[in-house]
């Protein structure tokens, strides 16, 4: 089974320096919900910090985790693929999570609201391939990962 945790942190240019930015950069994992759906319902548990709940579902050949990140099933392993530009649909493999391994993918992006204000988003996605009985609230709290991929673009503002 593949456990996935998505942590999305949105902030504006007023928070881009000092203690607030250090706190944003330090968040690598958060606890999972204590009670979850029946894990026998599928192969994937996906927890999104924006929705604040976990979903369990079966996986086909490909799973869309976000606009930039997809997961491909390769036998018992899961290959994580990434694209810097989602509109081009050119995904490259960044790592493969095997049974018992832990991977983390971190990227940032910049956008603009309808009234012209810049905002920034830092996305951290954690992956663990393990048996169903490995589920715990703090399963992502291991500090060292087996695989790490970061795409931290320089986010200037005009």
Structure explained in plain terms:
With 158 residues, the chain is mainly β. The chain has one domain (2-151). 5% of the residues lie in helices and 44% in strands. It is built from 1 helix and 10 strands, in the order βαβββββββββ. Strands 3-2-1-9-8-10 form a 6-stranded mixed β-sheet, with no helix packed on it. The longest helix has 8 residues, at 19-26. It is globular and about 45 Å long. The model has no long low-confidence stretch (mean pLDDT 82).
Using brief descriptors, characterize the structure shown.
six-stranded mixed beta sheet; mainly beta; 158 residues
Give the radius of gyration. 16 Å
Largest sheet: 6 strands, mixed
Instruction: List low-confidence stretches.
Output: none
> What series of H and E elements makes up the topology?
EHEEEEEEEEE
Relative helix content = under 10%
How many helical stretches? 1
Strand-residue fraction? 35-45%
Shape: globular
Distance between the termini: 44 Å
Q: Going across the biggest sheet, name each strand in turn.
A: 3-2-1-9-8-10
| Number of structural units classed as domains | 1
Structural class: mainly beta
Count of beta strands = 10
Taking all residues together, what is the mean pLDDT? 82
Write a brief caption for the model:
This protein has 158 residues and is mostly beta strands. The protein has one helix and ten strands.
Summarize the topology.
Blueprint: E1 2-12, H1 19-26, E2 44-48, E3 53-57, E4 62-64, E5 69-74, E6 77-82, E7 92-97, E8 102-112, E9 118-129, E10 147-151
Parallel strand pairs: 1-2, 8-10
Antiparallel strand pairs: 1-9, 2-3, 4-5, 5-6, 6-7, 8-9
């Amino acid at each position: 089974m593949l456990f996935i945790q998505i942590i999305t942190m949105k902030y504006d240019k007023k928070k881009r320096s000092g203690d607030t930015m250090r706190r944003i950069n330090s968040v690598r994992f958060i606890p999972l919900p204590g009670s979850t759906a029946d894990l026998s319902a599928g192969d994937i548990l996906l927890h999104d910090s924006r929705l604040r709940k976990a979903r369990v579902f079966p996986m086909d050949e490909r799973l869309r985790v976000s606009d930039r990140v997809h997961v491909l099933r390769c036998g018992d392993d899961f290959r994580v693929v990434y694209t810097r530009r989602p509109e081009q649909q050119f995904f490259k493999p960044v790592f493969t999570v095997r049974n018992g391994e832990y991977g983390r993918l971190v990227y940032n992006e910049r956008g603009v609201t309808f009234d012209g204000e810049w905002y920034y988003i830092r996305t951290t996605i954690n992956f663990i391939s393990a048996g169903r009985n490995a589920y715990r609230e703090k399963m992502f709290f291991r500090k060292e990962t087996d695989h790490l991929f970061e795409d931290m673009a320089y986010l200037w503002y005009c």
